[in-house]
Amino acid sequence: MNFDPDKRYQNLPVAVLVGRPNVGKSTLFNRLVHARRTITDPTPGVTRDPVGMDTCIAGKPMRLIDTGGFKLEKAREGAERTLDALVQERTRETLKQADRIILLLEPGELTREDEEFIAFLRPFQDRLLVAVNKTEGGRREQAAWNLLAYGFERIFMISAEHGDHVGDLAEAIIAGLDFSPVLEDEPQARPIGIALLGKPNTGKSTLSNRLTASNASIVSDIPGTTRDVVEGGFVYKNRSFKLLDTAGIRRKTKVRENIEYYSVNRAIKTIVQADLVFLIIDAQEGLSDQDKKIAALAHDHGRGIIMVLNKWDTMPVVKNSVQAVQDRIRFLFGKMEYAPIIPVSAKDGTGVAKLLDTAISLYGQLIRRIDTSLLNRTLERWLAEYPPPIGPQTRFKIKYALQVSDKPVKFVFFVSRPQAVTASYISYLRNKIRKDLGFSQIPITIELRSSQQTKE
After folding, report:
1. What is the mean pLDDT of residues 276-293?
2. CB count, 10 Å around CB of 119?
3. How far apart are CA 271 and CA 67, in angstroms?
4. Is 250 helix (H, G, I), strand (E, B) or coil?
5. Nearest partner of 355 among 342, 346, 339, judged by Cα
6. pLDDT at residue 310 above 80?
7. Are strands 239-245 and 230-236 parallel, antiparallel or unpaired?
8. Could you tell me which of 290, 226, 297 has the C-alpha nearest to residue 262?
């Protein structure tokens, strides 16, 4: 079958990469999916959440999952110990769903952690493949062959960085698996892409797990827990969604680790990949300057934006409190007056249905196309209601208009003297488009072009 990554499949075979920290799992993941999907950095423990992606391996559709570096000996105390335990438990859960498990090792003498991990994987022996990384050009292969003493039937000598023998490993991954995934019956096959963005510790991962009915994202009170973009999928009201849970975006002055720098940049890039942005705001803290910057980025890329007031369950019960908070955000951030503001509790699920209903509505606006003849008939009425100025220096004539794109939504107006059109008149046109043509809750771009006939 031909694999289409924009369609949603059931029952894809699952391959999982495992191993201790810093053996090159993320590099191998990126090599197998032919993209820089996960963060690679020499710092051990970069990957924490299992990062999954539907892809093709040796021409066959599969789901590949990169797990966090599995440390059997956890940190002694503090936040790092808590995260180690969470990563370990998430890795265990991921292994249970795997059709293939690829254990990645390094050449040379195994560490005690490697040996304990091999013992831990014994129950999965029928699904296990063993690859020894960093053996480019035959380097240290002799030492790697000693690993056969641990009872492995076959060992793959590879270089994830350079690609040596990765093709052989890929063929072994798909060997004997059932490749008959069923395309889901849904009215619109392409999923609606949603990026969860916001400051650290606002509840993005909790919301992601609730929407996907999974524990794909590790949830912790420790800021910076999520580093990679964690993908998930779900269906609501017969509509397919693809969810991108991102690292919390902090001010540049607070970004101190290289890893976090990559995480933040990866999060910003998800705006381009997504159709909609859920800007997660802590309801108690309210809108911050950093939230404004994130929203402005989404606006500039023409993405639908919903401001999600999370942790609403912690707010005092006061009459008209929702309206009061919404009014305050509108006052502080007038540029985003069009964006819906939805209070939710990711923890208990309150408001999530309304959030998804609003997302479907916004997506409908993002893909709406207006017939050119209808647009220009409507434009005539707008010009009659508010005629352009007639002064010798300020006059202009709008000849016609057309919608040139959706997602992002963009209109072009052909004008006799574009330089004479004031910002207030452009704002008038934008408001009319929103009100009369059904684009009330999304960003709209208006471009003025000089008409060929300039004589009035």
Report:
1. 88
2. 11
3. 24
4. coil
5. 342
6. yes
7. antiparallel
8. 226
